[in-house]
Design goal:
Layout lengths: L14 E8 L5 E8 L7 E5 L4 E5 L1 H5 L3 H6 L3 H11 L11
Length: 96
């Protein structure tokens, strides 16, 4: 094995929810929503159609342009996704 300088290497059991839905604007989303003990309680959300993944918490949903940038969405598409994710994303838990 090459001489890598590992910063972290851990294994963890996670929970993954797969959701497919169509918005009122007829945009289809296929998501994998992973719950993990990492990322301070935020979710690791993958758009299975584009392969884009982002770490998403309530603070990210409140940040203007975050979903548009992370998933390369229009403002309208991001608003629809944000509305769904409001039900999925919980509060952030800082453990430090």
């Amino acid at each position: 094995m090459p001489d890598y300088d590992f910063m972290s290497d851990t294994t963890e059991d996670t929970s993954t929810r797969f959701v497919t839905f169509i918005t009122p604007n007829l945009k289809r989303f296929d998501l994998a929503i992973m719950t993990t003990n990492r990322f301070y309680g935020k979710k690791l959300i993958t758009d299975l159609q584009s392969g884009r993944t982002a770490i998403v918490g309530q603070d990210d949903l409140d940040e203007e342009g975050y979903l548009e940038f992370a998933y390369k969405l229009t403002e309208e598409e991001a608003a629809d996704l944000r509305q769904f994710l409001e039900f999925v994303v919980g509060t952030v838990n800082f453990t430090d």
